Amino acid sequence: MTDAAVRAKLSALAPALRHFHSALLDVAKGEYEFIHGPVGGPFELYSLVMNHPQFQWLRPLSGLMATLDEVLDAKDRPLTGRNLQDVRQALGLLFADTDTRFAEFRAGYARARGDARVRETESKWRELLSGHEA
Hints:
Elements: H1 3-36, H2 42-51, H3 59-73, H4 81-95, H5 103-112, H6 116-129
C-alpha cells in the first residue's frame, strides 16, 4: 500500500474517530449531569474531561487519537501498511476483553453503546478499517 493510500485512509479515520469520541463524551457528560447537575459550558467540560475521574475511561481513546494526529502531521516520514496495522491493533486492544489495561474504557463503552449516535459513529470508523489491505 502506498504512502498516499495509507495517508488517505488514516486521514479519513481521524475525523471518524473524533466523531465517535464526541458521541462517547456526550454520553459521559449526560451521566455526569445526571448526578452533579448541568455542566457550565465548554471550559468546565474541558476541565472535567481532563481532571474528573468520571471521564477517565475516555483517555485511552483520546491518547490513540492524539498519536494518530501526530503520525499524520509528520509529513517527513512516509506512511506504510504498518501504520494502518498499528492503528487496527491499538483499536483492537481497546475493545478486547483480554486486555485488562482498558477494562475501564470497555465498561464506559458498554454503558454508551446503547446510544444511537455512538452506534452510528462507531460503524463509520469500523467500516473505514474493514479493508484488508496492509
